[in-house]
Amino acid sequence: MTDIAGALYEIKHLDELAKRDNTINNIHPLVKLIVTLSYIGILASFDRYEVSALIPFIMYPAAVMIICEIPVGKIIKRVLTLEPFIIVAGILNPILDKSTIHIGNLTMSGGWLTLFSLIIKSTLMVSAGFLLIATTGIDDIAGAMSLVKIPSIFVLLFLLTYRYIFVLMDEAERLLKGYSLRAPGQKGVKMKVWGSMIGQLLIRSFNRAQIIYQSMVLKGYNGRYNVSGGKGFGYAEGIYLPVWVAFFIMSRLINIPMFISGFFH
Amino acid sequence: MLSPTVGGTMITAAVGTAAVSIKEVRDMDEKKIPLMGVISAFVFAAQMINFTIPGTGSSGHLAGAIMLSILLGPYAGFLSIAAILLIQALFFADGGLLAYGCNVINMGFFACFIAYPLIYRTITKKGMTRTRLMTGSILSSVAALQMGAFSVVIQTLLSGKTELPFAQFALAMQGIHLAIGAVEGVVTAAVVSFVWKVRPDIINTESSEKSKKQGYKSVIVGFLVAALLLAGGISLFASANPDGLEWSIGKVAGDKEIKGETRVHKSLEKAQQDIAVLPDYSFKKQENAGESMGTVVSGLVGSGITVGLVLVAGYLIKLIKRKKAK
Predict the structure, then answer these.
(1) Are residues A190 and A108 in the same domain?
(2) By the CB < 8 Å criterion, does B245 face chain A?
(3) What ipTM score was computed for the predicted complex, to two decimals?
(4) Which of A226, B45, B60, B255 could form a disulfide with A168 if both were Cys (CB 3.0 to 4.6 A apart)?
(5) Given CA atoms B315, B320, B323, B325 in this order, what sign does their dihedral have?
(6) Quick one: B48 and B99 in the same domain?
(7) What is the pLDDT of residue B164?
């Protein structure tokens, strides 16, 4: 059965990492959002046969992890849980892509190259996504979202969903624990109780929502969610954004590993 | 697995649909926003519960878009699914950020704006009964998942990152999602009919929602525009996707594939041509067959050195940090 408590802990942990005080955590969330998106976009634009030119892109996640002292094992563990999906998507490439790549008199299988390329790209993109959360945190991301004029209804919905997830997963865990204690050794929930179990959770959630809404109104909720201003644009932002974006663009245009090896000829 | 063209187009489509939904939801009671949050979180939590699929050893879980539409109505349901998927993309990297638009369209759009109004609502229009609720939920879930699965197939193929042949891939996806859709439908039906029995006031019925034909129309128009954009993307691919044989290792690859895609890419391309000394440099190397082995070796050596540089840079950052700490 799914480990709900474990999943909750994992979510919370990433968010907690962002609350620490360090150079990157203090950078304006919008800047980090732009850097992450351009990183992902530029990686995605590479040709599917490209392998060597992708390697310099390791720089970004590596630097962020070191500066923010994010436990590498944690990120690797999370990326590894997704790796099977990526491999499944590309595993047929070596079989289906029979094309061969000639480099002089050396022949390589195009399929294997695409698989490698896919794995490297996805791994880097996924880590960049995790690092955004681990350095920014949900509140700041919501703040950046409202800065780029995403309607407040959606931002509020996003934040409230995040908040309530903890309340409801707690509730769901209690339900499941009760179920598994009375029906030990089962892989999942039996069909007979699907409706009543989830339905029960829904009704509990609904009641919870009304109580939460009433207490929010009592505390002065008026349909808006006020995000704290906090971080402004300063020197750090002025350096962080152009340096990374320039690095990404340079790595996209120049195959750095091949460029370096050029010195040895 | 996705190319930026397809990913970007789908994000545009998702944002467009969300914008229409927000417009529809805006004049709704502000009271409903916390409710939407709770229900979204509920679906998120419900996705965590595994169900034993009868007759097989495996288990599955909910996607929940049809359930959200039934509980909140299609617009709020679509926004909720978008919020859920955003949290999943950020925290579990389910699909990743690039695939976010695709996920929203595949799991949200078809369920909320096609399957829900055309199937579920048509069946339950004549009044709620247990049988109608059940058939409506099951049929619309199956239909929504079939459309979503087919859309995944198309998006993957348009992206051209995997080699899966269309027919087999489509067949496998539709087959698997027929089973998943059936399970989803049965769970949705079970939950909805339970809630309907216990708390009928929660279910979003016809009377609580005014007829909003105009709204649906604008959503569909928005989607058509997105489809046209996508079609533009396809033709780009069809003409420009290079044969694998044309590939060469020393070239700064990918320039053909993204030709004329965005302004950024265009200027990147221009910049690339301006500094074309480098690609030329490695090109010449390859033409010389005698040195080919050397090219491969130098590629490996270069990659190794790059990794080494990253490590050194990391070590330096650490060193500076430690010094600062003292």
Answers:
(1) no
(2) yes
(3) 0.72
(4) B45
(5) negative
(6) yes
(7) 66
